[in-house]
Every structure is written in structure tokens, then in C-alpha cells.
Automatic annotation (TrEMBL), chain A:
Belongs to the glycoprotein hormones subunit alpha family. One of its GO terms (molecular function) is follicle-stimulating hormone activity. Keywords: Disulfide bond, Glycoprotein, Hormone, Secreted, Signal. Residues 1-29 form the signal peptide. It comes from Accipiter nisus (Eurasian sparrowhawk). This is Glycoprotein hormones alpha chain. One of its GO terms (cellular component) is follicle-stimulating hormone complex.
Automatic annotation (TrEMBL), chain B:
It comes from Spizaetus tyrannus (black hawk-eagle). GO terms for biological process: G protein-coupled receptor signaling pathway. GO terms for cellular component: cytoplasm; extracellular space. Heterodimer of a common alpha chain and a unique beta chain which confers biological specificity to thyrotropin, lutropin, follitropin and gonadotropin. This is Thyrotropin subunit beta. The gene is Tshb. It is found in: Secreted. InterPro entries: Cystine-knot_cytokine (IPR029034), Glyco_hormone_CN (IPR006208), Gonadotropin_bsu (IPR001545), Gonadotropin_bsu_CS (IPR018245).
Amino acid sequence: MPRQIMDSYGKYAAVTLTILSVFLHLLHAFPDGEFLMQGCPECKLGENRFFSKPGAPIYQCTGCCFSRAYPTPMRSKKTMLVPKNITSEATCCVAKAFTKITLKDNVKIENHTDCHCSTCYYHKS
Amino acid sequence: MSPFFVMSLLFGLAFGQTASLCAPSEYTIHVEKRECAYCLAINTTICAGFCMTRDSNGKKLLLKSALSQNVCTYKEMLYQTALIPGCPHHTIPYYSYPVAVSCKCGKCNTDYSDCVHEKVRTNYCTKPQKLCNM
């Protein structure tokens, strides 16, 4: 009987340790390309219901990508024509590959087939 | 393998499929001047994290303002000043830098920000390092 009790305690300990190690791994994961807590879905294909028709879905790249803003290093500031105090490194969810589709009235759109976090083009003000 | 063990693993894997939002994060900046003997390492707070963006299917159909993309940037900041050690008397030894108070997913303001894509690799010391004691 004591052996059975020890076995069951051992199983509970193993499960507890597994859950703990998974959470610790998630908490210490790097932000660049890794995902942590709930709140921001990854950059991937999603159906664009505005353009989609039955049997002819149109996909759009949507999701979250990493970016950061920090004080401009002194070395970089010296090379700037107009020195800026802050440097913003950013990536945005964009199509890595797409096909061109022509809708009614000769309207041309893109049907995204693959996504990735890459250069932002419409993020400046 | 017990079902409970497998469920715990699956729960952990499923829980890690989304990203942390844009928020203040710890960061170390390295400051050195040619005239000064030391490089100063300053522990500060910056804005870093994930922001929601999308790529339009019809870029030619929309105005540029409708193609907006948000990035993690400063919402509120304050400036702090640090003293670079080992500077001669004729050199101004002070260095002012922004500290993030709060962050947001918004536009990169080109009035005071250098908006880039690739990592800037100039944040390092070439001289002996000293830690900034704030």
C-alpha cells in the first residue's frame, strides 16, 4: 500500500514540475519572434470577408509583430543629418507571397498566400 | 503516459501561441564621448513589444491614411541626465536621454524619431565600462 501511495505522489509531483517548467519557459522566452502571454495573435493568414465570395476566399495577412523604441545611441546620432533622440525599430505583418486577382469592374486586388513580419511602409507620421 | 500529464503539456503549448503587448521594458544604453575616459552603462526603460498590423489586399484602392500601421513607441516619457565619468574640464560631461513612462501602439513620429527596420548595432562600449548609479 505505501508503494502505491508513493507512486501516486510521484505522478502528482511530475505533473506539477512539468506545468511549472512550461510556465517558466514561457515567461523567459525572448520577445524577438517568440510569444509570451495572451493578448496579441501571431502574424498569419485570415479570411478577408469583405472581398471573399463563396468558393473563392481572399486571404489577408493580419497579426502582431515586434517593435521597440529606445534612446538613439550616441554613435548613430553623430551620423544623422538631423539628429533624433529616439530610434524606432519596427516590423509589420505583411504578405510574403500573394497572387493577383481581378474582381468585377476590373478591380485588381492581392490574395495573400504567405505572411511574415517585415518592413513597415505606412507607420510614419 | 497519463491523460492528465498530456493535458498539462497541451495546455502549456496552447497557452504560448500569442504575444506580449507593447509595454515599458528594461534596457541598457551605453554612452561614451571621445574626450572621456569611461563608457557609461545606463539601465533605463524603453518601449518594446507586439502591435497589431495588417496588410491591405487593395493597396491601390485606399488612401495612404487608411493603410496605417502601428508600432510600439513612447506614449509618455521624461528626460533624465547622467554624468559620464572621466571627462576633462573643457568637456560637457552630461548626457540626457528619454525614459519611457508609458507606451502605445501608434505611429512613429518623425519629428523626434528615426524610424528604421533593421537593428541598429551601435549601442556598445569601446572604453572601460562604468555603471550609472541613479
